[in-house]
Write a structure and sequence with these properties.
Pfam families: Toprim_2
CATH topology of one domain: Dna Topoisomerase Vi A Subunit, Chain: A, domain 2
Radius of gyration: 22 Å
Strand order of the largest sheet: 1-3-2-4-5
InterPro entries: TOPRIM_DnaG/twinkle
Protein name: Toprim domain-containing protein
Order of helices and strands: EEHEHEHEH
Largest sheet: 5 strands, mixed
């Protein structure tokens, strides 16, 4: 299991891949993010249960696909109060991060790709 983020957070977010953990953490810097990285059902469930018992809010932030729903269901089996969070754009949190970056870059671009020539004004004094 790969873990990143704010260790003092009371929010534990489970995701599938390490890149998703890093991406989620970049979007939500105050979260503790755990990547299952092929850890298996037993480790996923025991970790979720332990963190829940320690007072963490458990979030199933798995991919927005069939496999992600399966992992979320496995978490819900042991922590029925777990929240399900899906990326709004794309299949996973890395795609969500990239989409957000593209939107930010688009907002920074000027209306035209061409640089505007500065008008030179000559002041004539008589």
């Amino acid at each position: 299991m790969f873990i990143t983020g704010n260790a003092s957070s009371r929010k534990a977010v489970f995701v599938e891949a390490a890149i998703d953990a890093l991406s989620y953490q970049a979007i939500n810097p105050n979260a503790l993010v755990l990547s299952t990285t092929g850890s298996g059902k037993a480790l996923l469930q025991s970790t979720a249960r332990t963190l829940d018992e320690k007072g963490f809010k458990i979030i199933a932030g798995f991919d927005n696909d069939k496999e992600g729903e399966l992992f979320a269901a496995q978490v819900a089996e042991v922590v029925p109060t777990a929240e399900r969070q899906r990326p709004a754009h794309g299949k996973d949190w890395n795609q969500q991060l990239k989409e957000g970056k593209r939107e930010q870059d688009a907002e920074k671009k000027p209306d035209s790709g061409k640089k505007r020539a500065k008008k030179r004004v000559r002041k004539v004094v008589h």
